Known about the structure:
The chain is α/β, with parallel strands linked by helices. The protein has 13 helices and 13 strands. The chain has helices at residues 2-27, 47-52, 54-59, 103-106, 123-129, 141-155, 222-225, 268-286, 325-329, 339-351, 362-366, 382-386, 398-416; strands spanning 66-74, 109-114, 134-139, 162-163, 171-175, 180-186, 191-196, 212-220, 233-236, 253-257, 260-261, 292-296, 357-359.
Amino acid sequence: MMASKLSPAFFTWFILLTCLFFFYLYSSFLPFYSLSPTPMQSLKSPLKESQKNPQLERRHPSPICNLFRGHWVRDPSYRPIYDENCPFHRNAWNCLRNKRDNMEEINSWRWVPENCTSTRIDPVAFLDLMRNKKIGFIGDSLNENFLVSFLCILRVADEGAKKWKRKGAWRGGYFPKFNVTVAYHRAVLLAKYEWHPEKQLNLTGQDRLKGIYRVDVDIPADDWVEVTKFYDVLIFNTGHWWGFDKFPKETPLVFYKNGHPILPPLGILDGLQTVLESMVSYIQREVPYGTLKFWRLQSPRHFYGGEWNQNGSCLFNKPLEEDQLDTWFDPRNSGFNKEARQVNHLIEKALQDTDIQLLDLTHLSEFRVDAHPAIWLGKKDAVAIWGQDCMHWCLPGVPDTWVDILSAMIHRGLEIV
Ligand SMILES: *[C@@H]1O[C@H](CO)[C@@H](O)[C@H](O)[C@H]1NC(C)=O
Ligand SMILES: *[C@@H]1O[C@H](CO)[C@@H](O)[C@H](O)[C@H]1NC(C)=O
Ligand SMILES: *[C@@H]1O[C@H](CO)[C@@H](O)[C@H](O)[C@H]1NC(C)=O
Ligand SMILES: *[C@@H]1O[C@H](CO)[C@@H](O)[C@H](O)[C@H]1NC(C)=O
């Protein structure tokens, strides 16, 4: 009688108050940019307005936590939570097994984000939160590097974890205790691309073309086109293949749209921009509203003294200082590693006014010149053939911090729904 009359109103208030409670609780986790005018896609409550309202932001009691800005602190008591025996390792990144020098020190640096309390992942709590859910990474080998770190960390909470490779996944893991799947789909350019050896293709006006890589800017690669509705969380990236080392002049990328070559032919960065715009609009169209979507910004490379194929090296034993970063990465200084910030600029532009959240791991990673596999690649002659690896990361290592940040953001994203 009385109770049944009251309950709808009571229920509304209860939900509203719960939302407010979570907003306060999780605002201490908020990465800075998420308070920008871009609305969180899944926010349906009045909080949407309060988040957008700068006056409320200013009245907010605690300073805004920014997971992407901060500094690395040496903390000898800090330990990775997995070792060289994780079954998900890829040999070339398993720096403990490959006996890389300095591993203990590499993993004694802790990322301390500005104005945040501890953000380290709790694998049990995280898997519990993700129960019956699926997380998908889509992109290039740096997203695979990210995935391997994620799988090794989560496995600590479920030793029964199994390899998982379905639906076109390149690799992945299944956590039976929690019914959680985490996998990676390899799509280095995101768009579909194919090798065409035909001689008659002379679209770039160049001599001595061996053939071209045809990129269909408006068609997503087969590897992920079928899984847009399969995952609850998606993490995209592209960037490391958009360079002349992967696609030199004799075998260039040639961009097509609606089945026809784009004329005049696009340069590689204009091609990237076109692909980004088209893939982002595809994601907005095809990926369901409730899916959490992230875009990971570039992982910086650290080649010193030469490019990767010119004896470029990264034998450093501590992180860079903040005031060294621009010398290494500012495009105006045209160093070997300048492309990360250039590519980021294009990505940020393409993601404006979308509900895809930026995972800006570039800055924190720029410091870590000391944490690549370098010459310890686990294979004889690998360095002579491939050069040092100053691009991927040792595991355990920097991507573990990426996992801490991503998991905090997923946590927050799911709680707010
Ligand atoms: C951290 O908090 C201080 C004090 O509120 C603020 O001035 C600063 O901008 C914050 N830092 C970041 C990166 O948000
Ligand atoms: C596992 O999760 C999927 C959704 O990701 C669900 O369809 C399936 O029923 C779950 N299985 C069990 C055994 O709970
Ligand atoms: C390609 O076109 C350029 C200019 O249009 C021409 O100079 C060159 O000879 C052509 N190359 C081939 C292999 O046909
Ligand atoms: C790289 O180093 C090797 C051995 O020191 C040397 O023979 C070679 O010329 C170097 N290559 C470049 C591009 O500098």
